[in-house]
Design brief:
By secondary structure, the protein is α/β, with parallel strands linked by helices. It is built from ten helices and ten strands. The structure holds adenosine-5'-diphosphate and magnesium ion.
Length: 260
């Protein structure tokens, strides 16, 4: 579904992504792992239209989508979540979900005036959809809670929920498991597996927790220093010499570095 060809992204003179080529097959849950600073989030940001690449191409189903802005990618069904959750903290969980779909009739004032009935209909449909999503994620009890009061893990679930309000084809999840307790991580994992199996979502998942990666992902792609080191089944990938070396070497050098 996604093909990244020889992608480079420089910040000043520094190559955050240094000639990475990857493929994400339709229907897969592809893992993206690597030490902090490997360029994983930057690669996501380029694919998702947040950053322009310095060079290289991104194709979706054969179509060149390089440099398209996030809202255009959104309409093509390409969505991403952020390493740090972006919730509207003073709105309820349900309202947060209802904010998602782009192109609602209510967005334009003029249409608001002439199309009241239509808007009421859309709102009712959105409400129903939001409640289905909350149910699916087993967080219906949090419906009327202010999003700002959620735990870190619950905010990650809400981010995942926002991708379910539209018909996503491929969802990029950046460290959904960071700071999340084991129970909630399992809930997130279950939701991802169900979305993949029942709704045909393709996923690309950045995550440090190798148990989580091992349970969900096949294949796993390993990055280090802006480059792709290896790709394969999670069981074999962690025995790869280059991968072990990257983790050990970088792990020491970058032990104080916080992921971005
Ligand atoms: P990862 O997600 O694998 O931890 P990142 O993609 O966040 O890695 O970062 C890769 C490298 O690029 C890091 O050294 C980081 O400091 C640098 N970097 C990321 N974003 C920026 C930016 N906006 N400006 C400058 N340097 C950046
Ligand atoms: Mg990152």
């Amino acid at each position: 579904m996604i093909r990244v060809e020889n992608l480079h992204k420089k910040f000043g003179g520094f190559s955050a992504v240094d000639g990475a080529s990857i493929e994400i097959g339709t229907g897969t849950i592809t893992g993206l792992v690597g030490p902090n600073g490997a360029g994983k989030s930057t690669l996501f940001n380029v694919i998702a239209g947040v950053h322009e690449p310095t060079s290289g191409r991104v194709l979706m189903d054969g179509e060149d989508i390089t440099g398209l802005p996030p809202h255009e990618l959104f309409h093509k069904g390409l969505l991403r979540t952020f390493q740090i959750a972006h919730e509207f903290s003073s709105m309820t969980v349900r309202e947060n979900l209802m904010m998602v779909p782009a192109g609602q009739t209510g967005e334009s004032l003029w249409k608001t005036w002439v199309m009241r009935a239509r808007i009421a209909q859309e709102e009712a449909a959105l409400l129903k959809k939001a409640d289905e999503v909350l149910d699916f994620l087993t967080i219906s009890h949090l419906r009327d809670e202010k999003a700002g009061n959620l735990s870190g893990g619950q905010k990650k679930l809400l981010e995942l929920g926002r991708t379910m309000m539209v018909d996503a084809k491929i969802v990029f999840l950046d460290e959904v498991g960071a700071g999340v307790n084991r129970t909630l991580l399992n809930t997130i994992g279950d939701a991802i597996i169900r979305l993949n199996k029942e709704r045909g979502y393709t996923f690309c998942v950045i995550e440090h927790d190798m148990d989580f990666i091992g349970r969900l992902c096949d294949p796993v792609i390993v990055m280090a220093e802006g480059k792709v080191l290896a790709k394969g089944h999670p069981d074999t990938i962690m025995q790869n010499e280059a991968v072990i070396e990257a983790y050990l070497g970088r792990g020491l050098k970058n032990k104080d570095k916080v992921g971005m």
